[in-house]
Amino acid sequence: MDDVLRNTLLYDFYADLLTARQRNIYHMYHCEDMSLAEIGDRFGISRQAVSISLKQARRSFDAFEVALKLVERHVCAREYLAELKCALEGRNYTDSVTILDKLDDLI
Question: Do residues 16 and 64 both lie within one domain?
Answer without folding.
Answer: yes
